[in-house]
Amino acid sequence: MTQLAAARHGTVTEAMERVAERENCAAEFVRQQVADGQAVIPANVGHDALDPMIIGREFGTKVNANIGNSEETSDIEGELEKLHTAVHYGADTVMDLSTGANLDAIREANVEHSPVPIGTVPIYEAVKRVDDVTDITHELLLDVIEKQAEQGVDYMTIHAGVLMEHLPLTDGRKTGIVSRGGSILAQWMEESGMQNPLYATFEEICEIFAEYDVTFSLGDGLRPGCLADAGDEAQFAELDTLGELTRTAWDHDVQVMVEGPGHVPMDQIAEQVERQQEVCDGAPFYVLGPLVTDIAPGYDHITSAIGATEAARAGAAMLCYVTPKEHLGLPDREDVRDGLAAYRIAAHAGDVANGRDGARDWDDALSEARYAFDWSEQFELALDPERARSYHDQTLPGDNYKEARFCSMCGVEFCSMRIDQDARDAGEMESIEAEDGERTDVAGSAAAEVNRPPVGTHDSTPVDEATPADDD
């Protein structure tokens, strides 16, 4: 029985109980959200190392990190290091987008070691199995999908919404089809003259997913790759199809989330989120960015985090991170770190803006530590404690500076908070103190786990020496 089937039958599963604990909410509320298709718990029955989590607009905004090898670089050890880095810096899920060698071994290693859900894009492996794209058959696709389900993959991107009749709608675009899966399937359809094989076999895919409780991540193969293409006929024609496929999957008791753009001007983001929610009957929206400008190669973790914050505020349930290497190359460990930091900020900012229970407690606690010049507490509460401490210690490394009433930005004489405190102590202004004399209790906060500090303090034992529990 899938999580969706159990929820519809009124059963609160162990996964739902764990999710309720992590989200600081009632297990019955979790069950109802899953039953209504408004949230998903990606949890393959074969993923033994998994610590269940939930994706839905009524819960803390989640962040996905993409990792994976390419033809040019990376091996199993390198991919496990990326996985560990992603979990260490706060990824809620990880997608293995490998397109190079050893796909099976890398996927199995990721599932074995990952406490977070693992996602894949099966069309990539299908392409690797043939000499020409047109050699891909319906049977091959189903074989690849079932094998990955057996390996324990929790969710899969299935680009079943790209139809033959949609392809002419992309002809006037500036950047055409920018989704790898979308472009592969478009080529297959153009050369074979047949309809999208993932669309044609969708109900058979649903049967496989139901057996292993794999969650659909319905791919947006026609997402806009630049601002000029945002909100065009091609994008919305595919979205309408994704709405139909969502309801088909639900008929098979299979969980669904829907992927979204891409590159979208700031003023269109909320409208696009609202449109997806309407067309797909509230199924969780999982967005890549969106990037709000096209001018910043090398800084697209920033351009996209701006859009991601607005998407989260508008109701997107999960944000797919973008690293500084986007459009330029395969990200390394530091790129993963920077991308996750940007997106954890975006997710948290969205939750604060939406008034999530307790979300701002973290902000308040850090602000109180900052005003009190409690440097050690600031570091512990920081999104990335290691980096916060490192930046401070670059100029003031001594232990004595951990109690100093200034940092190197302003120095002693011009520190505004010191000046303010001294003035209040002198009686010129009212002193600032909490009503009970204590700081915000983040440990006892009502916030969901993702909105509690710190994100970046997972066990740092090398993955190949750790048990799955150590990575959590």
UniProtKB/TrEMBL annotation:
Q: Which family does it belong to?
A: Belongs to the ThiC family.
What is this enzyme's catalytic activity, as reactions?
5-amino-1-(5-phospho-beta-D-ribosyl)imidazole + S-adenosyl-L-methionine = 4-amino-2-methyl-5-(phosphooxymethyl)pyrimidine + CO + 5'-deoxyadenosine + formate + L-methionine + 3 H(+)
Residue stretches of biased makeup (Acidic residues)? 428-438
Q: What is this protein called?
A: Phosphomethylpyrimidine synthase
Q: Which residues bind substrate?
A: 66, 95, 124, 159, 179-181, 220-223, 259, 286
Q: What does this protein do, in the record's words?
A: Catalyzes the synthesis of the hydroxymethylpyrimidine phosphate (HMP-P) moiety of thiamine from aminoimidazole ribotide (AIR) in a radical S-adenosyl-L-methionine (SAM)-dependent reaction.
> Which GO molecular function terms does the record list?
4 iron, 4 sulfur cluster binding; phosphomethylpyrimidine synthase activity; zinc ion binding
Q: In which pathway does it act?
A: Cofactor biosynthesis; thiamine diphosphate biosynthesis
Cofactor annotation remark: Binds 1 [4Fe-4S] cluster per subunit. The cluster is coordinated with 3 cysteines and an exchangeable S-adenosyl-L-methionine.
The residues that the entry says bind [4Fe-4S] cluster are 407, 410, 415
For this protein, the Enzyme Commission number is 4.1.99.17
Q: Which UniProt keywords apply?
A: 4Fe-4S, Iron, Iron-sulfur, Lyase, Metal-binding, S-adenosyl-L-methionine, Thiamine biosynthesis, Zinc
Q: Name one Pfam family in it.
A: ThiC_Rad_SAM
What HAMAP family does the record point to? ThiC
Listed cofactors:
[4Fe-4S] cluster
One BP term from GO: thiamine biosynthetic process
Please list where the region (Disordered) is annotated: 426-472
Q: Which gene encodes it?
A: thiC
Q: What class of enzyme is it?
A: lyase
Residue positions binding Zn(2+): 263, 327
